[in-house]
Amino acid sequence: MTRRIVVRLLQAAAVLAVVATAVFVLLQFAPGDPFAAALDGTNVPPSVRMEWRARYGFDLPPAERFVRWIGALAHGELGYAASRHRPVADVVADAVPRTLLLVGVALALGFAAGILVGLVQARHHRRWPDRLLGALTLGGVAMPEFLLGLLAMTWLGARWRLFPVAGIASLGDTATWPAWERALDLLWHLALPAVVLAVGVAARVARHQRAALLGVLGEDYIRTARAKGLGEWRVLWHHALPNAIGPVLALLGLALPSLIGGAVLIERIFGWPGMGLTLFDALLARDYPLVLAAVLLATVVAVVARALTDVVAESVAPRRARIP
Amino acid sequence: MHLLTPRRLAIALCCLAACRGGDAASPGGILVVSAGADAETLFPPLTVGNQGRAVTELLYDKLADIGPGLNTIGDGGFVPKLASRWEWSADSLTIAFHLDARARWHDGRAVTARDVQYAFRVWTDSAVGAAQRNALATIDSISTPDSLTARVHFRERTPEQFFALVYTLIPLPAHRLAALPDSALHDAPEMRAPVGSGPFRFVSWTPRVQLELAANETYYGGRPTLDGVVFAVAAQGATVAARLLSGEADFLEQLSPTDFAQLPADGRVRAQAFGGFDYAFVQFNIRDARDAGRLHPLFGDRALRRALTMAVDRATVVRSVFDSLARPAIGPFSRTQWTADTTLTGIPFDVAGAARALDSLGWRRRGGDGMRERAGQALAFALLAPASSRTRQAAAVLLQAQFKAAGVQVTIEQVDFNAFLDRAHRGAFDAMVGGVRASPSPRGVRDLWGTSAPGRGALNWGRWSNAAFDVQVDSALAASDTASVRAHFRSAYQTAIDDAPAIWLYEPRIFAGLHRRLTTGAIRPDAWWSGVARWSIDPAQRLPRDRRAAVPR
Amino acid sequence: MAGHTWRRLLADRTARAAAGVLGAAALAAVLAPWIAGYDPTAQPDPVALRLAAPSWQHPFGTDPFSRDVCSRVLHGARISLGVAAGAMLLSVTLGTTLGALAAVLGGWVDGVVSALVDVLIAMPRLLVVIALVATFGALSPWWLVVLIGGSGWLTTARIVRAEVRDHQQREYVTAARALGASRWRIVWRHLLPAVAPQVAVAAALALAAVIPLEAALSFVGLGIQPPLPSWGNILLDGSDYLTTAWWLVVFPMAAITLTVGSALVLADRLRVAIAGEGRPS
């Protein structure tokens, strides 16, 4: 087991190095630099921009920049995000917890709702609740997240004013609020983006959960349980679910990259300043130290999540052998 | 005064405010501004974008500010700020500024002449790379005969020397910064928590989220009416507008035409026009996109540029994209600039005339798709547009259809802003939808449309070159009475219009969006933030978010 | 045995309905020039006729440039589905090839492909594509196919690799090998047909993933260049008018959701058919 983990880590590190190089090379071909964004319609002469480029080493040959970046990375330094006038580490330290919160809450909500919907569908298999929820979950998967986000923001936020439109905290003097009030405020702002992201997750989870439950419900031990006169919900909850949850939990690791991808546009629409938005802005600003750091981070998170998922899947799987 | 730490000072001030509060006309309320971008930095020499200027100019005062008439010649109309008065030497090569003895930095130290001198050093040091450094090129040095007098020595007399100085140079707190080498200023923590001299002091900044300022209780110009200003930042245009429409924010600098259509019927949010200095154009590349040594195969030809201009119905473009929120542009200037002239003769929209001109140039319609060609070569070009600007994209789509009707094949290339700017800088385009925010000074026209040479044409991406235009602009900038400045600019503008280096598209009329609880008075077109210290929020319509900070312990 | 799968699929009513929707969308795309009432780029009157609500003349209304939304959605199907189908084909071909190679050759090839898949699959695809588009500038639909397709082969490769490895252990393959069939002959004659249903599942899923991707790319202004209509850039044109002109969003949204939903249902039913249970939903 340890050996496998070590091999896998080494593999991941090697590929990470390849990815970092590829992203770097790609960004060298992309025209522009972090100093362009400020220059739309302004009267700043190009000579000033050249000075800024020189100041942050954007005039060095790409190879030298890469060596410098790698060298700094070896010392644990992520470099300087020129588009933000801050060290990359500071920018990332601000953004990562916000994205973890958003994605974490979306995952939790999505899985809870999805498993529940799957249960209801399995319970009422081929009757109207199943069909209705089936259509809804299909729509939930098929509808692009950014559209749902945009609709939620304009209608629920701006038009009906049920939720805050954007940001992570109420405006004004929130710094003086008690901690619990600030926490509530944060959740309040989290509501729309997290729910929008959770819809897609829930729909996917529900579809898997339903299929997995239906697969299990045909088995002998379920018939035995039913024969014992247990209620249908009890059968579902205590006997079918534990055996049908494995494949659904395996989704967790797979859902993360697409969730992070989906979070980019959602964070943009709801002004949620997490890693997705940071990465998107950094890409458009050609701020390569920030892009590289963000890409590496997203990759590491996803790889770790996959590894965790594997462990969870392995620990859940044996139950199938044990219970029947 | 030295015994007062900033914290103690803050406590003292808050107590003072608490004693004063009570009556209905009392100051208060927190202005929330919905912004589409964040300041890049809070260090005045390095701010470029509008948002950066807004924040730094609330935090820092200038020596003097331009008057409501936006005159840029001499010192007419200028309003004293940090300098309570100034006097010119007989030869106009020296101006002595007398600082207001009451002016204080936010940490309580007095603003001195040394701060002016230091700021000049920072602004002109290439290690800092101040964006607007060129504006100070005619200043030789600044001396400090005493702590409240800064004497500015100019190398030469120019009509706009006073404007260029006070509009650009912002005194900086030398006592806090001078110990740092200039090259370290960029990244100094001080830049993220600045100590200024203006009507508002810095409270907190979460980059790309929100920036909070509080009233400077001891401001020498009198305490601002508002308790504070909060800038709430969002990236997506729809979100920025939604903040205002939902009542989360009180102010939005510029309503887009679509925002305008969504203004609630109950009058909760209203629009207020304040001019604006933007103008947009389709810029032709006069030189070959690949080889600057050659003329562009199409746009090197003045007659073709004029014919293409004639084929464009700008009034329709403006009404479709902006409804009534913009006007067709006239030439290389904004109507808000004082040198603007609305009586110039432009190239009229004339479909038949355009067709005749194109025919006579040999571009004839071919059978089949009806597109024009000459010697087997189609009349076709690419139109570059930035993906960051919805209005410029929309204009490109409308123009494309109009050109198609005239037999001209246009391909739109919509690229992200960095790629757009890069190609503009390299001259690697056929034509592009450009836009400029002009300044009150008409001087910028020389960089944008003058022949590329040292000191001019630095932003002339289309590489248009017209000797008559250059001479006329130079004469205008050298003239010292407003009448002859106007006259010279009038002929320069007419030259540019006739030679058609660009199709002058539109000038947005900027409407700010305001919550009705906000009272602003007139908004200055070049800087909406200039009067914020006098803005107020109706006490009857205060919200929970207007609560003042508790006294810090 | 793959043959049974296809037969079971054909017998499945839900699968037929989903295929029917996709077929109808494809037909609309092909026939768009003949069935659309207007030129999708024509701007009859961009002032008076902009943002007109649905009517008999314009059943889906008009957009901010006075263009007929119905015609644009129909022609948009050409671009959106064309790009999606092209990208799907490319990614499935790439994925099948790489997956099969990894499974058959094993060794370092397998190591490299698996490691690449493991890490690349962790990178948000939308961002990868945005980075590529930003690098290469305004792209023709063909290049979009290459970029989107080139970034989507991972899932297919993973599925095909697992399936081929699984089938390699089965008796019929061992038997063929014993009969002296060459390695590539076995791959071509036995393994690929055997994994074809799984590849079809991957293809349907790829289609379902690519359509929203194109929409998202166009939504940030970096996808299909105007004036060509795609479902994504119709949405972009409509995104400023969500509360004032619903028809700009509802119709392309319905088109996207219907086609993506059908592709998903098809993938589902295929899986059921493969499992052989033939359980009706």
List the helices and strands and how they pair.
The complex is a heterotrimer of chains A (324), B (553) and C (281).
Chain A: H1 2-29, H2 46-55, H3 62-74, E1 80-81, E2 86-87, H4 88-123, H5 128-142, H6 145-159, H7 179-217, H8 220-227, H9 232-269, H10 275-285, H11 288-316, H12 318-322
Chain B: H1 6-20, E1 30-35, H2 50-59, E2 64-65, E3 79-80, E4 83-88, E5 94-99, H3 113-124, E6 139-146, E7 149-154, H4 161-168, H5 174-177, E8 200-206, E9 210-215, E10 228-233, H6 237-245, E11 251-252, H7 257-261, E12 269-273, E13 278-284, H8 302-310, H9 314-322, E14 326-328, H10 351-360, E15 364-365, E16 372-374, E17 377-378, E18 380-386, H11 390-405, E19 409-415, H12 417-426, E20 431-437, H13 445-449, H14 467-478, H15 482-499, E21 502-508, E22 511-515, E23 518-519, E24 536-537
Parallel strand pairs in B: 1-10, 1-11, 18-19, 18-20
Antiparallel strand pairs in B: 2-3, 4-5, 5-7, 6-7, 8-9, 9-10, 11-22, 12-22, 13-20, 13-21, 14-21, 15-16, 16-17, 23-24
Helix pairs in contact in B: 8-10, 9-11, 14-15
Chain C: H1 2-10, H2 13-35, H3 69-105, H4 107-120, H5 125-136, H6 141-150, H7 153-168, H8 171-178, H9 183-219, H10 231-239, H11 247-275
Helix pairs in contact in C: 1-11, 2-3, 2-11, 3-4, 3-6, 3-7, 3-9, 3-11, 4-7, 7-9, 9-10, 9-11, 10-11
Report on the architecture of this protein.
The complex is a heterotrimer of chains A (324), B (553) and C (281). Chain A is an all-alpha fold. Chain A folds into 2 domains: 2-87, no CATH class; 90-315, MetI-like (MetI-like fold, Orthogonal Bundle), CATH 1.10.3720.10. Helix content of chain A is 76%, strand content 1%. Chain A starts with a helix and ends with a helix. Residues 1-25 of chain B have low confidence and may be disordered. In chain B, the strands form 6 sheets. Chain B has a 7-stranded mixed beta sheet with strand order 8-9-10-1-11-22-12. The radius of gyration of chain B is 25 Å and the shape is globular. Chain B starts with 5 loop residues before the first helix and ends in a 16-residue tail after the last strand. Chain B has 3 domains: 6-57 and 218-275 and 510-549, Periplasmic binding protein-like II (D-Maltodextrin-Binding Protein, domain 2, 3-Layer(aba) Sandwich), CATH 3.40.190.10; 64-182, Dipeptide-binding Protein, Domain 1 (Dipeptide-binding Protein, domain 1), CATH 3.90.76.10; 278-508, Dipeptide-binding Protein, Domain 3 (Dipeptide-binding Protein, domain 3). Chain C is elongated, with a radius of gyration of 22 Å. The model of chain C is unreliable at 277-281 (pLDDT under 50). Chain C has a single domain (2-38, 63-275), classed as MetI-like fold (Orthogonal Bundle). Chain C contains 11 helices and no strands. Chain C has helices spanning 2-10, 13-35, 69-105, 107-120, 125-136, 141-150, 153-168, 171-178, 183-219, 231-239, 247-275. In chain C, helix 2 packs across helix 3 (69-105). Chains in contact: A-B, A-C, B-C. At the A-C interface, helix 1, helix 5, helix 6, helix 7 and helix 9 of A face helix 4, helix 5, helix 9 and helix 11 of C.
